[in-house]
């Protein structure tokens, strides 16, 4: 641990020598500038200089005198402080027993702790200020135990700060220095200054600071001690303001309170009130570090509970963590609930500011008690309120009108940091609040005033649910505490009225249920009707919070009591019992409904409906009918759902119950949406939404917005959908409606998926899943898992996708009546099998189709037929595929599913395209495009344009092809589909390249590459880089080509694409070969060959071998060349499609044999190559070179006739190829040479014959 130490030299009182060379002394002349009298207006100069043997001491001449509980005696020039305890905690900052000794100051300087979390931003901010060119004075403020000293130490010990101030930074523990003279004396000690005889320490300090050539950093810790001590403030203010005016002095001050001392431009770190408490994550990290333990799983949740009790206060965290070394978290939580702040101390240590939270609080309490009695009287009232006092400037005088100086008392408490203001709310940290309540009790009159205020506040809430909830929110903890205590003391009618109002708000159920329980505990005050109403309300609240079993237990208890009454044959009791049975069954139906137990829910509603009918309650009958209609809707029984919802709506309209009528309209719209009757569904949802808004029913509005957003999403209207769903989410968050929040998040995730924002989609759907899990909504969990699987599959995470889809299927099966979801899981499994090339793809699709048929869900059936058609199309079985698509189209048409019909047309067009039936293909694709345009389906429009562009490209109509691709690109941009936008750019690049528009091609590939990199699609980005490299190489931009290839190779390597890496290596090798770096080229080609072999691409490996052979031939390393060429030849010979490559290898082998003088072998190789060239009719120039090289060998063999034939055939080939003039000339020249040689040979032969004839004669 690093400790901030002052540089000092020890002196004893017997030292009379002159200061040594390294003592810090000030020239005599400089001492004339300032005296203690003009620096401290309230002080007088010493009447006479001290004697030679006396030490300069600010308390010189003082003998026995008393400063509150501290007796100070001057003995032999030393000050001795003896404390007398009065029973209360005494601030060590007022213990001056060693204030003038350097040892005491050094020992009071704490070390810089290694455990430091959650303050990095503040640390960096402070370091930046201190290291700037400007003077900086930093104020680290806040209550005791908030971590002020720790932050100051870390700032001062920062490497950058240490570099700036070097050895000129000093830590002064001001809790030992209670006034200005003591501060001066302490700073002299820390600065190791030795004043000359006859000069006061004040001059020495000021002149040293003023004349210092270096920047100085003073850390004044616990400055509240001298600032608040008795009447010392004026002198302390003068001192610190004088020091602050010195341009080379920078200060860090730590003190309790919201403001720094004096009229100094302090830069406050943290909030206006000072340092905040730690964030929860930082608090957990600190606790774990102090306890030297790791907390995961359930322990992590328990730790969060404990830290929230402690309000994440650093000192409380440290002290509790010390206990955690021996005690489990459960014990610590129990200790807090029982002992509160009594547990927040360091065991076996004397209480102090750093070892006891209660002691630390008492230090501030003493300051308040000595200065403002009215503030002290206000403290227990404030500590009673867990929410503090929201909007306190307008509120406090309404609650407590009898206080004379209320605002001044609050100001005094703010200055002490016992309370703080946050967003106009007076708050108190939990440990401080608990200790104040333990020490002081709020007066009865003040509690009554708070109750009166809040009863009036509740009574005057606005009618609008959202507005009234927002007004209640900041007060609700206070309301719960006050009403609960008052109800338990004396239950009044006003309490019934208030509880009835606040229990309407679902957001506060976890708190307001306590008020219901308090009323139910006062059973003697309740009539049977009131008691039952309260119990039924509690059941509803438990159901909403997901406490299903407790709610069911209460219902069973009610039903047992009702059955007893039914058996008594008392008509009055029977009527009451029927009511209880009806309403309890209805509540039971709600519980099962929200648990997705639809069969059980349906039975409960039917029972409830039966009992409601028995005593003629048509409202109850219709409510049950509405819920049964919703169950039929979920189970896809659309006719039954519509009949029940319309029947319930008729009754609600007659009775004028607009709220329930709106719920029916919403359900009817859901049916119409499933039937894809979008216009009717939207109209009914808008009507329902307006009715909910008229009655201030925020939840109903949110549910309508969710459905409208989903409807737009299904119609591909993504911006409109997103806007509505986000608006709904705001309503759900406001109401803390977790089920609705889950629905919103799931819908948003679906939109992000369409827009290729996969990371955001995954994060959002996992949040949705968490919301559904919290409320036990299995169907929602299943839907989230299904979407997770789809997202994983899109990112090629097949194993994760399969795991998610199997979990989703299990959930769908557990819910029951979810054949639609189960069939969708089969579809997704088929998609996974398709990617894996698994043979079960078709059986899984048939299984999905069969499940959809059993519902029946004809859209699902059609989707399966369409997928099966894709399978057959992929196998080239176009007739079967076409037949299935036509059947799918009929189903889509019967279901009024325009999107499905357009997609079938699109696929039929693609089949025609694959069969090169371009006219039919274009007709179908144009029709499909028109249908997609009619419904605003951007994806379909873009896909048709891409297919049409492909046809135009094949027809070499590049203008139309590029126009179509540009159109597709715009559609994808509208959808914010960045992946397909980039794919369009890449395709446009290919079209421009074919149309010789090289600059446009380069721009398109660059744009595509950038887009692919932005969405982290490394494969396509690498592909673009590879193409860009090839174009640049073609243009002669070799260095650019090389750079693109290296970047492409890196990306291919990151995704472990061995083939891509190998292709890059192959091209890099060719560049190296061109540049004459043959060894590097061979090395890269060998590596490329190995990677091609890893992925089973033997032919590509053979090409590498062939090129290596060519290079070895150039280097005249014929053995190595022959080995590589023969190995390549073996690979090529295994595949009849690569005759050209075989011929090329044979040509190189022939040349090597020729160079070695192995003429027969050379001619054999060339002859074989010549035979192959004649059959493949490809690359005529290579055929010409083959014949030319063969002719050269034949010439060397003096087979002039054969050579002439070879050169003649070569000449014939080169003559047909434009640009091969040199080759033609070479062949012509060699033919003349052959003729010449032959004529010379003939002449020689004639001469020989003539000579022979002469000899014979």
From TrEMBL:
Q: Which domain of life is it from?
A: Eukaryota
> Pfam families this protein is in?
SNAP (PF14938), TPR_12 (PF13424)
Entry keyword Lipid metabolism = no
- In which ranges do the TPR repeats occur? 1102-1135
Q: Which Gene3D superfamilies match?
A: P-loop containing nucleotide triphosphate hydrolases, Tetratricopeptide repeat domain
Coiled coil found in the keyword field: yes
Q: Compositionally biased, Basic residues: which spans? A: 1-11
Composition bias type Basic and acidic residues, residue spans: 12-26
Q: Where is this region: Disordered?
A: 1-54
Coiled-coil stretches, from where to where?
A: 915-978
What are the UniProt keywords, alphabetically? Coiled coil, TPR repeat
Q: What is this protein called?
A: TPR-like protein
